[in-house]
Amino acid sequence: MGPDKNLLERWRTTEILLLGGSAGSFKLLFQIVKLLPASLNKVVIIVIHRKRNFFSEIEKLFAENSSIPLHEIEDKDVLKKNTIYIAPANYHTLIEKEGYFSLDVSEAVWYSKPSIDVTFESAAEIYDKRCMAVLLSGANQDGAEGMLKLRNSGAVTIAQHPDDAEMDEMPAAAINIGAATYILRTEEIFELLQIQ
């Protein structure tokens, strides 16, 4: 059937795509990285829960299967379009209004560092309606409050349909507090993100 017309228009004018996930989201994120077109012309930021040194090959695996330059975020990296950034383990990733990342070593949020909430909330303060966020499978509620702030700032927010999620707690938490503008099936998310 194809995406909703309003959603399609918002996707085309989006400057930054935020992708958040935890348990059960690795394969989905890998698939998204593979399907994003080379001419995407957006900043893409992935925040996936990971322990220190766990998934140490994630950047290599993703980069080898991406048509867009991809790397792990370092402190003070400048955000560039047509680049995929992955939040590093053991830090919270924030976006500064001057257009660069800062890494924060404060306490874990929802037992997680990086926290999806922290990154989503910092994006909400800067990108408002120029931002789209997608929250995928996960076993806790990280990302829900951050997604609500994004929605309230004018961003488009998408939760993976809980029936499709390997672990439904994360997208369900966002849906339950009214943080999701759209609730999409996995295939609908894939379809949308390939459109130019």
Verbal overview:
The protein has helices at residues 5-13, 26-35, 58-64, 116-127, 144-153, 169-176, 186-194; strands spanning 16-21, 43-48, 70-72, 83-86, 92-95, 101-104, 131-135, 156-160, 182-184. The radius of gyration is 15 Å and the shape is globular. The chain is built from 7 helices and 9 strands. α6 links the parallel β8 (156-160) and β9 (182-184). The longest helix is centred in the middle third of the chain and has 12 residues, at 116-127. It has 196 residues and is of the alpha/beta class. Helices cover 33% and strands 20% of the residues. It has a 7-stranded parallel β-sheet, sandwiched between helices. The protein has a two-stranded antiparallel ribbon with strand order 5-6. The protein has a single domain (5-112, 121-132, 150-160, 181-194), classed as Rossmann fold, CATH 3.40.50.180.
